[in-house]
Amino acid sequence: MKFLSAGFKATIKEKSEVMNKKKISIFIILTFAIAWTIQIIVSYIYINMDKVKGRIIFQIGLSVCMFAPLISALLSKADFKSMGWKPKFKGNIKWIFFSILVPNAFIILGSAVYFLIFPDFFSLDGSYIMKSFEGVVDPEQMQKSLHKAGMDIKTTILITFLQCLIEVPFINMLFAIGEEAGWRGFLYPELRKNFSRINTWLIGGTIWGAFHFPCIIIAGYEYGLDYVGAPVLGLVIFTIFCITLGIMHEIIYDKTKCIWYPSLLHGTTNAASIVLLLLNGNQKDRIEKLFILGPAPNGLISMIPMVIISIIMAVNVIKKDKKM
Questions:
Q1: Residue 165 domain-assigned (yes or no)
Q2: Least confident residue range of 87-96, 140-149, 175-184, 269-278
Q3: Which spans in 183-303 are helix H?
Q4: Of 69, 114, 147, 281, which has the fewest CB atoms closer than 10 Å, so is most exposed?
Q5: Of 184, 187, 322, nearest to 255 (Cα)?
Q6: pLDDT for 41-89, tens place per residue?
Q7: What interhelical angle do 232-256 and 93-117 show, nearest 10?
């Protein structure tokens, strides 16, 4: 009787561990319906409205989109209690440092590789930003304002970098939780019930990448509109970026069982990427045509360090899985 009882319990457990295809289908359809609708609307506003208002509406729209996976997971009746909403610090402090320092490390290394290949694109004079906001902000007035505050553009870049290292990741984390609860909290664990880690990373990362497609195609999100291979190459490269970064996110979530850690990693990556725009020189047209290569971490060249780190982490985890 004990043997039959144990076997019956094992059978129930196996059935409960089968991927719920209906839930996943509902989740993906709802996520894309919400996110793509918002992205299409704000993308057209962005390209047809004046720079300041259009940019503000576009950024607000993308921030709202980040909560589409969370809302869709909720409507799909995901198990929210098991996502790890309560912060878990015991044994996980190292992952806080990892989530802040490692993204900054691979972003700095990636941009260094990019600027070594294109040294004439690098500058600390803020000329790219000045050029980007031409007609919106008076460069001379901006310089005077900085001077009155006892600062210059180099000091501003340094302060911005320190903020992105210390403060901004935790602010961004509050927005990133909207995506992470859907991707890492629901989608990846469901996929793992039927697929290997590698296939889960590939499928999950591809879905995560496709989540951004409308704003990449219409508004030139991340790469602009005038680059070699546009827009198809941008979609491919960004999907590779999401697959690779998704490996780190999934491993951290699996290690900590707490959704806040991948959210912090996500927030740090978004924050550190902004600083790189300040390092571009006064060759706006040439630089933007090569955004597909870098210096942001989703560029084909600048993502190399991140890819290496992710592969190392993936190999280690797969080896441990095989031992178990």
A1: yes
A2: 140-149
A3: 188-192, 197-210, 213-219, 232-256, 260-275, 284-289
A4: 147
A5: 184
A6: 999 999 998 778 888 999 999 999 999 999 999 999 999 889 999 988 9
A7: 160
Please list, in sequence order, all residues whose beta carbon lies within 8 angstroms of the beta carbon of residue 51, skipping any fewer than 6 positions away.
133, 135, 136
| Bridge partners (DSSP) listed for residue 122 | 280
Partner residues linked to 280 by β-bridges: 122
- Residue 29: inside a domain, yes or no? no
Q: Is 25 part of any domain? A: no
What 8-state DSSP symbol labels residue 279?
Answer: G
Domain assignment of residue 190, given as a range: 82-323
- Give the sign of the dihedral formed by CA 203, CA 204, CA 208, CA 214: positive
Pairwise CA distance, residues 265 & 247, whole Å: 12
Burial tier of 137 (Cβ tally within 10 Å: 0-12, 13-18, 19+):
middle
Give the tens place of pLDDT for each residue, 144-184: 666 666 677 778 778 888 888 788 999 999 999 999 999 99
